[in-house]
Amino acid sequence: MAEDIQVKREIVLEADAEALQKMRKEGHARGFTVYCDEAERIGGENTAPPPLAYFGLSLAF
Q: Which helix (H) or strand (E) holds 52?
C-alpha cells in the first residue's frame, strides 16, 4: 500500500535583478540582496564576486 502514495511538491522561486553601473548587478531573492561585478580588466570595477563565482558556489552548496 505504501507504494501507492504519491507526493507532489511545487517549488517556486521568485528573483529579480537589475543592472547598475558598468558591469555591476543587484539581485533580490527571498528578502536577500546580492551583488555581482566583473574584474576591471573586462570593464567592471571588481566590487563584488563575478556571476560565475556565484554559480560555482551554488554547486558547492
A: helix 51-60
